[in-house]
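1st attempt posting a full record on here, be nice pls
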Amino acid sequence: MNLARSITLILLCMIMNNTHAQEHRYDPPWNSPPEAAVNFTVPGIDNVPDLYGDIVDPQLVVFFAGNQFMVMDDLLAAFKKKYPNYQRIFVETLPPGILAKQIEGGSITIGNMRIDHKPDVYAAGKNRIDSMSAHFSRVETYAFNKLAIMVPKGNPKGIKSIKDLAEPSLKVAMPNPAWEGIGRQIVSVYNRLGGEKLENAIMKEKVSSGTTYLTKIHHRESPMRILYQQAEAAPVWYSEVVYQQLLDNPVEMVEIPEKDNIRASYKIAEMKNAPRRQAAKDFVDFMQSEDAKAIYKKYGFETP
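the predicted structure (as tokens):
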């Protein structure tokens, strides 16, 4: 009897431990972490996926719109190879509106960590860059993107178009337009396809009922909500679905026809007050290179 109880307890512990482990099986960081004496990343507790590289005495600081986190490993490795003088690089890939506030205010706090680095380079969508033109000494276009709908593998709800997101019971992960440029782009598509009625259905009625979830950082939350079965559809950038599929995660893409889609332009800018001006110039030059374009194409972007 005691043996049977012991076996039962062991099995229960194994099931509980396995269940607990599975809770974080899709958690970021999805990029490869830099080498260090100690790697102490704890999923769900101590995990800062949108800060990269060397925060102490960096030779280059870049603020990237968050949806480009997937290119960082390849991009930074290629840049360091071409410009070997730059090895200590610090990058943030937070939502562009948050980065803009950080630029204006001069600092940001994440958890218990305060960062007051001034960026040498800022990369974001065209509208955001245009609205902040007084901060920049040089601006270049380097990539384009479009929208898609991320769904779980097999597309169990049979999503076919943007209009399907208005289904009252469908659980949608939606970028918050308050600080995520993609949110405003998606809302513009709602208006184009269904006017105020479609926008209100998804952005007001379903938010109120709880079936539209507004993300704080969509490039992390939207895929995770799909992967953890908390959402059944998520309008995202095309490149974000491509990346999750490159990771072999169980998602599928519902493409949005060109006539119903948008084409986002990404611009990169040298800051007028860049603390490391030559580094800023070299990085913006690199972003115009064929090496950089090939990396962006790999992850589903288009380039000039």
